[in-house]
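Bench notes, afternoon.
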Amino acid sequence: MIPIQNIYYMLSYAFQVLNEQGYKSVATEHFENVADLCAAILIKGLSKQLKRGLMKDYIPKREPLTALRGKMEISETLKTNSIIKRQVVCSYDEFSENAYMNRIIKTTMLRLMVADVDKSRKKEMKKLLVFLVNVEPLPIYRINWNLRYDRNNQTYRMLVSICYLVLKGLLQTQSDGTSKLMDFLDEQRMHRLYEKFILEYFRKEHPELTVGAPQIPWQLDDDFSDMLPVMKSDIVLEKDDNILIIDAKYYAHSTQQRFNKATVHSANLYQIFTYVKNKQEELKDRQVTVSGMLLYAKTDEQIVPDNTYQMSGNQISVKTLDLNCGFDEIREQLDKLTI
């Protein structure tokens, strides 16, 4: 089990805004679970956003009015017998705080209000929800998370990401159809956070490295690539003539059982091998050494992968990162992986 404080540190690398003034106090607070942590971040974030001003957007509305506004809907007016009430149905755009991202934040806060969150934080959320009185909540399972960010709404990126973690990673449907918040993030959401954390850690803490997550092109003999999957790397570290491709893996089980013998997940090994060989071939005109690494989050299993293999001229290693320790120890583990 990962300490809640370490999840905060992971989030602070994934979202650099958490290192700004106003969020730093969160690092010293005590949290019973991840929902409690997310509530604290949302409280700080929404408080800062209210000082800047809530985002507003043009919201389409259609309603019967006594005076014409926008476009008159004749068929709708006749259908609803609005004329009898001396009204006409009008369609118009209203510049309102009922913007979609504000609605996501309100929906999440309302969900956290009935979750296992510290009473003092629920009290703070209740005060903040007063400022969202004109914002309508959304049906949780119908939220569209494909949102566009620009200069005007960039400050919402981290807030909406935390909402996503809460509603997608913590929400669990019960057998009776109701839902409740779990105390921990699900495996899929933790995998994404784990991957993003490692990438951003190397970007921030190791400026001597070129750090990215590029696509690796297939090295084809005839350029025919129909139906080939995209090779999207998790983390690529480059320094001088050395390249290390890291594939971050967060599983409940870091090994697979084959005939009562623990082995590395075969699909993972095939994947990293393919990445390395295609990258090596892409750079064959340069004197570059390409190596690969599967970096598993450590589990409670007794067998912990820690091996290095020489495969067809390239080094492939399988390592684990222990997240159930002090963050200084996590830093030390990551720093040892650099090239």
